[in-house]
């Protein structure tokens, strides 16, 4: 079972994190203090960490940079009440893998952490992505569904690559917008939806089993299983 | 900036008024001196002529001619006039050959109002016991001398007082003028919205400092109140987001546990989407204050707008197609500008999003990036209903939605975010008429500080 360390000093937020991960089938350990959190984080017992930016005794930035210096490269999802863009940049530069601001939707948090976990596990040297009969050649940038070639626009290619790299994971619209366009604001649900439905028309033509699933109230997933 | 001229300063006017009052005083004093001196001198002259006449009274008329010559010889100043006339006015002796008119022989001194005598000259005519008329006059050389002296004193002192008053006024006004101009410069940032700026004060504790102190005190209060109002807004947005996020999490969990076929599934979905709308609005509100709070120019880096605009066009292409619109991006290779790339993208995105939202099917949304002398200009034009002239300022405010927008989804914060981003960069944002449709122009160079 995947073990996750949640370093978070706000009690209610901590309870939410623990509840969300337990529901997803993770084993969660919660620590409220910065110094204790640092000790646990470098213990090597966990596969991922959610880390509050501001903590008593030792702050989040210090924890993540100490972890990286100690050679511990497990995914770190930083969670902070500081919404400033500069804070995000600082968090990522210190070694965080992703940055979320409070308040957050818990499924957004678990979605992000699962993408991080997956990225950490999968060897990134693949040249070909496969999900059932859907193939994406990362060298020639060609996509095929059941042997039939799909013509993709550059944005659609990036979208499909992102979906396939994270096949089976729920990807929220915010995560998609951040990953494909690289911006961190709320673009409005519809804007991302139309891009997805354009891609869906090409990937899931009538008569084949649909692969791109809409997850109501959260986002999208490219199904690994039917 | 309105220029303050030196002659408009209070000090200058005060000094000038003081100088004029002083000049009037000088004139009055000199005039009074002249008048009293005149009276005194006239009295003296009267006594001189009467005394002289009295002295000559007892001289036998036959000896008068010789006495006249004797007296004239003593009169070095040539101020005495003598004359002896027959009762019918015929000349007998003396240096006056005609008996002047208007001098009755009554022994009273009078002014000699005759050509050939200076104004103010006095004379007396007496009838001798033998019947001849004796004329004694005294010229007004002293009086006119005194007059000349006083008049020139009047001119010089009056003129000097005025000239000196003007000069001293100008010099005295310079220092306050400089301080007022410094204050004018210092107040410009306040007018431009920099509420933390203050007016300069010195340690003189004079009236200018007093006024500056009062103005600064008022600014403190205004700033405090504005912050209070702002932070109430920010805190409300922030504080409400947390419970709303939890509410959404709960709804989401309920939705997952009930499954898609449950009777209430649709209602829960609706509740979820309403909660999302609320969260979006609070997020946008918080976003505006975040942008407003940001340190000016912190995090600015060179940005190429051409790529940014093309990316926006591409981002909105599918959405425009879904609405049955064409979207066209025309870009010129404009120079790099110093800006916050992410915020500019967000602002452009909001502009194009609005255009797409409000333009009816079959319309056109065009993005145009042109190179101006001062920098790049972005224009987003649509063929929608436009914004009436009277509402163009208001739509930039939070939550204001134009009449045309009241039917469309959204919260009226998109343009406020654009306005906040423009404010942060000191870019000029303008809504205009594209006839038909709306044209939003964003001048991507720092607008002049003058207003």
How would you characterize the overall build of this protein?
The complex is a heterodimer of chains A (226) and B (451). Chain A has 226 residues and is α/β, with parallel strands linked by helices. Chain A has two domains: 119 residues, 3-Layer(aba) Sandwich (Rossmann fold), CATH 3.40.50; 95 residues, Arc Repressor Mutant, subunit A. In chain A, strand 4, helix 4 and strand 5 form a beta-alpha-beta unit. In chain A, helix 2 runs parallel beside helix 3. Chain A is elongated. With 451 residues, chain B is an alpha+beta fold. Chain B has three domains: 139 residues, Beta-Lactamase (2-Layer Sandwich); 87 residues, Helix Hairpins, CATH 1.10.287.130; 143 residues, Histidine kinase-like ATPase, C-terminal domain (Heat Shock Protein 90, 2-Layer Sandwich). Chain B has eight helices and twelve strands. In chain B, the strands form three sheets. Chain B has a five-stranded antiparallel β-sheet with strand order 2-1-5-4-3. Chain B has a five-stranded mixed β-sheet with strand order 7-9-10-12-11, covered by helices on one side. A two-stranded antiparallel sheet of chain B has the order 6-8. In chain B, strand 4 and strand 5 form a beta hairpin. The radius of gyration of chain B is 49 Å and the shape is rod-shaped. At the A-B interface, helix 8 of A face helix 4, helix 5, helix 6 and helix 7 of B.
């Amino acid at each position: 079972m995947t073990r996750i360390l949640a370093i978070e000093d706000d009690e209610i937020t901590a309870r939410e994190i623990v509840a969300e991960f337990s529901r997803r089938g993770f084993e969660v350990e919660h620590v409220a203090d910065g110094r204790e959190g640092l000790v646990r984080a470098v213990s090597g017992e966990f596969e991922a960490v959610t880390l509050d930016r501001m903590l008593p005794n030792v702050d989040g930035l210090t924890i993540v940079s100490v972890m990286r210096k100690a050679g511990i490269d497990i995914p770190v999802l930083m969670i902070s009440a500081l919404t400033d863009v500069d804070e995000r940049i600082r968090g990522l530069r210190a070694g965080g893998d992703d940055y979320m601001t409070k308040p957050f939707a818990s499924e957004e948090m678990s979605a992000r952490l699962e993408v991080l976990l997956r990225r950490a596990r999968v060897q990134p040297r693949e040249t070909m992505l496969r999900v059932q009969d859907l193939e994406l050649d990362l060298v020639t940038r060609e996509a095929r569904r059941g042997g039939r070639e799909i013509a993709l626009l550059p944005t659609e290619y990036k979208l499909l690559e992102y979906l396939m790299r994270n096949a089976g994971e729920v990807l929220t619209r915010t995560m998609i917008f951040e990953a494909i366009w690289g911006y961190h604001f709320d673009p409005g649900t519809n804007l991302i939806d139309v891009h997805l439905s354009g891609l869906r028309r090409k990937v899931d033509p009538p008569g084949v089993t649909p692969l791109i699933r809409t997850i109501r109230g959260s986002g999208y997933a490219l199904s690994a299983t039917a | 900036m309105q220029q303050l001229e030196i002659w408009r300063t209070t000090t200058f006017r005060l000094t000038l008024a003081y100088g004029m009052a002083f000049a009037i005083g000088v004139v009055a004093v000199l005039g009074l001196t002249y008048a009293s001196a005149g009276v005194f001198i006239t009295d003296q002259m009267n006594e001189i002529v009467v005394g002289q006449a009295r002295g000559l009274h007892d001289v036998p008329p036959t000896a008068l001619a010789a006495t006249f010559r004797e007296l004239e010889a003593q009169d070095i100043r040539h101020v005495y006039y003598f004359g002896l006339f027959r009762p019918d006015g015929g000349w007998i002796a003396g240096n006056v050959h005609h008996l002047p008119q208007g001098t009755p022989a009554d022994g009273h001194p009078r002014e000699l109002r005759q050509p050939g005598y200076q104004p103010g000259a006095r004379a007396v005519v007496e009838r001798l016991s033998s019947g001849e008329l004796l004329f004694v006059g005294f010229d007004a050389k002293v009086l006119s001398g005194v007059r000349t002296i006083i008049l020139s004193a009047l001119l010089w002192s009056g003129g000097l007082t005025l000239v000196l008053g003007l000069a001293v006024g100008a010099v005295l006004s310079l220092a306050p003028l400089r301080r007022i101009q410094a204050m004018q410069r210092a107040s410009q940032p306040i007018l431009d919205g920099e509420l933390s700026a203050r007016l300069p004060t010195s340690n003189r504790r004079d009236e200018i400092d007093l006024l500056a102190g009062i103005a600064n005190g008022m600014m403190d209060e205004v700033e405090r109140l504005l912050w209070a109002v702002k932070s109430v807004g920010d805190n409300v947005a922030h504080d409400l987001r947390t419970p709303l996020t939890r509410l959404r999490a709960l709804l989401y969990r309920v939705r997952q546990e009930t499954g898609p076929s449950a009777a209430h599934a649709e209602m829960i979905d609706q509740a979820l989407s309403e909660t999302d709308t609320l969260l979006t609005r609070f997020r946008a509100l918080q976003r505006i204050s975040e942008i407003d709070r940001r340190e000016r120019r912190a995090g600015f880096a060179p940005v190429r707008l051409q790529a940014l605009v093309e990316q926006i066009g591409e981002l909105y292409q599918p959405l425009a197609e879904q609405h049955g619109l064409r979207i066209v991006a025309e870009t010129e290779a404009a120079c790099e500008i110093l800006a916050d790339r992410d915020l500019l993208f967000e602002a452009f995105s909001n502009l194009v999003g609005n255009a797409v939202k409000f333009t009816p099917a079959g319309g056109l949304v065009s993005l145009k990036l042109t190179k101006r002398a001062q920098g790049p200009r972005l224009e987003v034009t649509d063929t929608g209903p436009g914004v009436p002239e009277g509402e163009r300022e208001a739509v930039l405010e939070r939550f204001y939605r134009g009449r045309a927008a009241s039917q469309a989804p959204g919260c009226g914060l998109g343009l406020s975010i654009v306005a906040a981003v423009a404010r942060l960069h000191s870019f000029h944002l303008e809504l205009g008429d594209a006839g038909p449709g709306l044209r939003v122009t964003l001048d991507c160079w720092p607008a002049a500080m003058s207003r």
